[in-house]
Structures are given as C-alpha cells and as structure tokens.
Design brief:
6 strands, four-stranded mixed β-sheet, globular, 165 residues
Length: 165
C-alpha cells in the first residue's frame, strides 16, 4: 500500500499533495482506476436534471479490460466522449462517487482498491467497482434512444466498494 513516510510531504503520494492542475500528464492519466463507469450511457431527466445511469456501454469500451479500445482517437470516433479536465472533475455531476478525479477534486483520498494504492490494476474489478460483467448492451447495438430506458441501473452512481477481506 502506498503511504507517506512519517508524515514527510515529499514522500506523500502525488494525489495527496498536488492539485489536479499541477499534475503531469502521466499522473493525471494514472488517476483513472479503470472502472469504466464513466463510459456507460447516462440519461438526464429534463425536468429535474437528475442523472440516470444505464448498463449500456460506449462502442469503444472493451468490456473485459474496462479500457477504451482507441483512447487516443476516441473523440474522433465518439464525438460526445468527454475529455476530462480539472474543471470538469469539479463540476460534472455524473462522475461516479468512487471516481478518483472526483475524490481528489473534493480533497478526499483514493480507495484501497485503486491501482495507485493497491499496486494492482485488478483490485478495481475484485472490489466490484468496475463495469466488468455488468454491461447489458453497447450503444451501437441500440436502434432508438428510448431503448436506453430499458437498461437503467443504480449501481454506477453508488459507492458500493467492499473492504478488503
């Protein structure tokens, strides 16, 4: 487990001491835990603004690895794919409560299962956080927007992490 050494700020992990804006590209990208919850389609209630998650994944998502199959070119292929910025990490209401970008933006620490903490990229899956095994359809398979309503789920917007055994 990554931790600071005897309170020495120089030994503290970067996400505890650096604001999002000061992170290098590598540090920024490493904050992504690989859960892929942000890659699920969402519906917004026009009357209330409430966000509803679905179990329908982006066309580019690899359901096993929970990573984008064409990350560098994702916005060319999926124009509405959001390129997350520090400002968006602070303002997007649909970021899952377990999202590292959201946690760091709120001044909170990463969960035990985050790969930067555990040292293992599979702990996000073992903890039940990722979308692995939970995708019911890919967006390119649906013919109408109304079909998304048949795939509404609650779990992506919940903090349902399990403590280590």
């Amino acid at each position: 487990m990554v931790d600071d050494v005897a309170g020495d700020p120089a030994a503290a992990p970067f996400w505890r001491v650096k604001p999002l804006e000061a992170m290098s590209e590598g540090e920024w990208e490493s904050l992504c835990d690989g859960c892929a919850r942000c890659c699920l389609n969402k519906l917004e209630d026009e009357d209330t603004g409430e966000i509803h998650f679905t179990s329908v994944a982006c066309t580019l998502l690899d359901g096993d690895s929970c990573r984008c199959r064409d990350y560098p070119n994702r916005q060319d292929e999926v124009p509405d794919c959001v390129r997350l910025t520090p400002a968006e990490a602070r303002s997007l209401v649909w970021l899952p409560p377990t999202c590292a970008y959201r946690l760091v933006a709120e001044g909170r620490d990463l969960y035990w299962w985050h790969p930067l903490v555990s040292g293992d990229p599979d702990t996000v899956h073992a903890a039940g956080i990722s979308v692995r095994g939970r995708i019911t359809a890919w967006e390119h398979e649906l013919t109408e927007l109304q079909e998304l309503e048949h795939h509404l789920v609650e779990w992506p917007n919940q903090d349902n992490s399990r403590p280590p055994a």
